[in-house]
Amino acid sequence: MNVIDVTPRPAAISTVVRFLQSPLMSILGVLFILTALKWGTLLFVVHQYETVIITRFGKIVRTITAPGLKIKLP
């Protein structure tokens, strides 16, 4: 059973709703999610009691002992 919404809306709201449901906004939403996931893998936290060793292909690139929010580059 299909339900059709027949609630009257002002023209401006209908235009905004149509724009938000457009393919362009879908693509921008996917790009935003992928960017957020990428930043989530680049950032990490070093606690006061930790020492972090950054490796690349099994070789030590650098060590971090200062606490705080850090970034690792690919």
Plain-language structure description:
The chain has one domain. It is α+β, with helices and mostly antiparallel strands and 74 residues long. The longest helix is centred in the middle third of the chain and has 20 residues. A hairpin with a 2-residue loop joins strand 2 and strand 3.
The biggest beta sheet is recorded as: 2 strands, antiparallel
The quaternary state of the protein chains shown equals single chain
Q: How far apart lie the N and C ends? A: 51 Å
- Number of distinct helices: 2
- How many strands? 4
In brief:
By secondary structure, the chain is α+β, with helices and mostly antiparallel strands. The chain has 2 helices and 4 strands, in the order ααββββ.
Layout of helices and strands:
Layout: H1 11-20, H2 23-42, E1 43-46, E2 52-56, E3 59-64, E4 68-71
Antiparallel strand pairs: 1-4, 2-3
Keywords:
74 residues, two-stranded antiparallel ribbon
